[in-house]
Amino acid sequence: MAKKHKHSNNGVVLDTALSIADLRSISARAALESTGDLWNGTHNIVESDSGDSWILYLVKGSVTGWNKFMTFMVTFGSENARSTLQTEIITYSTTQTTLMYFIPVSPKMMRARHTYLQFINKVANTVRQADPSARIAINEGEGMPTATVSSAGPPPTTTATAPRLPPLAPALPLVAQNSTVTPATLVTSLITQSPDGHDVDDRTHKVSRNTRSNHWMITPQGLASVPLVSGLVIGRQPSAGSSGGAIVTVPRTEDTVSKMHAKFELVDGVVYVTDLASINGTILVSPDDELIHCLPNTPTRLPVGYAIELGDFTVTVEAPASGDA
Question: Which of 82, 81, 61, 79 is closest to 70 using CA atoms?
């Protein structure tokens, strides 16, 4: 059997005081609202099949609607007067960047995973808002499940261990029936009590924080941060003329960085990265280690939260404190 993808056991498991009918309605709404994005691709999540305790969803392309990128199952149950919900990826497809059509140059990426993650987070957030007592566990990381991937149909038999739910939250303080308590009063009473009964203010120290810049900030590995006003070039011997005067020179010991490696530009509040035909290329890296290889001399939009690798040299970009650059 082929090796499963590192994200094939991503999903959510929860229990809640909400009814199964509520959970089915929340799932239907999340499927409608989870469409991906223009950067990673837009998709449709549609119900493919269902039973009394499960729904099978299909993720397909919004443009080429016949493409089936992924199927996943949502199963419902009840235990100890509470309802349960769990999701599981059933089938999926992957994509990989190759050189000369057969030499892989990036890890395999699960297609439509970002849309699936939108779905499970929308379900979790909606349940959390409707029921503060809900216990929710989300797996968005890596791991190899022991479940067998099966074809569409009723919920598959699986030996995979579901993510462990956190313990139930402690009950709120009891309030006398005849007393008048406003939400503000209740919140105040909770935050002014400490476990040992002492006033919290006697034990609380004021923290000092550095004021965040109202500019986009470029931070090369081991170097001071530089504001990105319009354009900026990074390399071992960058030329000021290519970026309107803004340059960052990396140490000469960073021999995987080209003399003129990459250009950063700010256009209408969006950061673009251009690889300047460097030797080792420019790669955008997501928090989940998904890679975007920049084409030479082609501006590539930088998604929020991505780091940039110039050879073995890392650059991070921080958004401004306010919405404007």
Answer: 61
State the CB neighbour count (10 A cutoff) for residue 174. 6
203 pLDDT exceeds 90?
no
Q: Say if CB 103 and CB 81 are below 8 A apart.
A: no
What pTM does this model have? 0.47
3-state SS track over 198-226: CEHHHCCCCCCCCCCCCCEEEEECCCCCE
Taken as a whole, the chain contains a residue count of 325
Q: Is the dihedral of CA 5, 6, 9, 13 positive or negative?
A: negative
Summarize pLDDT for 126-176 with one digit per residue, the tens: 999 999 899 999 988 764 333 333 333 444 433 344 455 555 444 334 334
Q: How far is it, in rounded angstroms, from Cα 27 to Cα 21?
A: 10
Are 54 and 77 spatial neighbours (Cβ–Cβ below 8 Å)? Answer: no
Tens digits of residue pLDDT in 312-323: 999 999 888 654
73 vs 174: CA distance, rounded Å: 40
Rounded Cα distance between 284 and 282, Å, is 7
Total Cβ atoms within 10 A of residue 55? 21
For the chain, list the domains and their CATH numbers: 11-139 (3.30.530), 216-318 (2.60.200.20)
